[in-house]
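Lab notebook, bench 4. The sequencing result for the construct came back, and we need a structural model before the next group meeting so we can plan mutations. Quick request posted to the team channel:

Model the 3D structure of this chain.
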Amino acid sequence: MFLFVQQFEIIKGKAVDYSNFILRKHLPAMTRMGLNVIGGFHVILGSGPRITSAAVTDDFLTLQKAMQGDEFLEATKELHDYVYSYSSAVLKDTGRVDMANYSMALGTWRFNQYFKLVPGTEAEYSDFLKNEYIPMLAKVGIRIQAEWQVIIGNALRLLLEGVTASLVDVA
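Done. Here's the predicted structure in token form:
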């Protein structure tokens, strides 16, 4: 599975126009291109642009075809009329977390951690993740639902994606 992430800030005074563009043009265009937009969210704790949009595909070829098409280029160009501090990344699931039921459910909060492993520690990290870290987070109400590796983009190399029903669990 692949994740395409767009992050940005909305230009002051353009929020209504931005919302109209997203609902009437951007989301339908992404769907036509074969990108399954699973959601968007606002960053309230942590660094980075405030708005994140996420789309998934089962394979890289679908994502590649979408991104090299004129419709993608036009939709992204028009998005820039409403946003600044834009960045995007392509991520691939690592296989270390069961993602069979991956989704972005309404009414949930994300606990995302971005990091880079020290070379040579992958096996130790995998053991720690499975046997210690994921169970410990579950005890405090955070379910790890995905782990992604950035393959295109300038973000840190790994994204561990947690989800919870309560903001208190992530604050």
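The mean pLDDT is 90.
Will bring this to the meeting.
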